[in-house]
Amino acid sequence: MNDGSPMITGKRILVTGVTGWVAGPLATSLVGNGNEVFGAARFRDPSSRQPLESAGVQTVSVDLGHGHYDEVPSDLDLVLHFAVAKADNFDHAFAVNADGSADLMEIAAARSDRFQAFFHCSSTAVYAPQGREPRTETDLLGDSHRPMPGMPTYSISKIAAEVLVRYQAKRLGVPTVIARLNVPYGDTYGWPLFHLMMMERDIPVPVHVDQPTSYTPIHADDIAASIPYLLTLASTPATIVNWGGDEITSVEEWCGHLGDLTGLTATLAPTEATIPAIVPDLTKLHGTGFRSSVGWRDGFRRMVETSRPDLLKS
Fold first, then answer.
1. 77 Cβ partners below 8 Å, 6+ apart?
2. 314 to each of 260, 263, 305, 310, how far by Cα in Å?
3. Please, are residues 72 and 14 in contact by the beta-carbon 8 Å criterion?
4. Spatial contact of 38 and 69, defined as CB atoms under 8 Å apart
């Protein structure tokens, strides 16, 4: 039932990165309401197509890093671009995250006379850390993720992607919105779920030495619900907007809550080799009329109930 919130209806939509955490659930949520939804990924494992196709998503093979775009559909109305490479190698990270995003914009727009908007999922990882002071969209950019094991290219390549997407929006005249996502999670995925698994195995959970390590997690339900609001910001030149849930919490606090739910105890390990606090200012997002509906405590309980009910205290 529609509660009066805006909905996407009657559109041909390409969602990239559908084998990932965020884009897969989003793509399936868009099925129905007259939409034709295409889900793009490399699909190196052909069996990964089946759950999406069973949910009504038409899968297409796209490889941003190697320039394989033959299956990008024609006559698209919208592209929701979530594909990303978290690579050790800068050449590969730039090829996928920056060059690939720009190429996808041009190809999708060239194949459609009805193209309405390009949505680019960026990250609050592009901000220079500054404690828990909320970051606005015009604040200083920096390399917050370099200390994180396995993510030395992430911040820089996401900044590069924003630059090329903004350039293409102007050059092609494509209305574009760049949304800087904070900490996404859902009933079956997310960073907090990894922390729960670490707690179960008595593995210390990294937190930044500048505590608390604060963020604004956003549940998959609110990710899907916010897309129509975010698309109202699509413009030429592109609009940049922060994207997260309304409540601020921290790794320290949410590990404590997970402990309350399960009886497990988190061992916290302060270190500089992890992501520091990044709290986005959500004024521009709220200006669209969107407010998140899933509080982090309720959302984390749902996550545990769905993914690890065996760990819940009776």
1. 11, 12, 13, 112, 114, 115, 116, 117
2. 12, 10, 12, 9
3. yes
4. no
301-to-8, 109, 255, 286, 313 alpha-carbon distances in Å: 29, 42, 12, 25, 11
Per-residue DSSP letter, 263: S
User: Residue 142 in contact with residue 129, Cβ under 8 Å?
Assistant: yes
Q: What is the DSSP code string of 155-204?
A: HHHHHHHHHHHHHHHHHHT--EEEEEE--EE-SS-BHHHHHHHHHHTTPP
CA distance 61 to 304: 33
| Cα–Cα distance, 149 to 140 (Å, whole number) | 23
Grouping H, G, I as helix, E, B as strand and the rest as coil, residue 49 is helix
> Distance from first CA to last CA of the chain, Å, rounded?
34
Query: Residue length, the chain?
Result: 314
C-alpha span between 116 and 98 (Å, rounded): 21
Confirm if 74 and 139 have CB atoms less than 8 A apart.
Answer: no
Q: Report how far residue 99's alpha carbon sits from residue 175's, in angstroms, rounded to the nearest whole number.
A: 19
CA-atom Rg of the chain in angstroms: 19
Which residues have C-beta within 8 Å of that of residue 238, sequence separation ≥ 6? Answer: 120, 165, 166, 169, 170, 176, 177, 178
Does the pTM surpass 0.85? The reply is yes
The per-residue pLDDT string of the chain (314 residues; one tens digit each, 9 = 90 and over) reads 346 689 999 999 999 999 999 999 999 999 999 999 999 999 999 999 999 999 999 999 999 999 999 999 999 999 999 999 999 999 999 999 999 999 999 999 999 999 999 999 999 999 998 889 999 999 999 999 888 887 899 999 999 999 999 999 999 999 999 999 999 999 999 999 999 999 999 999 999 999 999 999 999 999 999 999 999 999 999 999 999 999 999 999 999 999 999 999 999 999 999 999 999 999 999 999 999 999 999 999 999 999 999 999 97
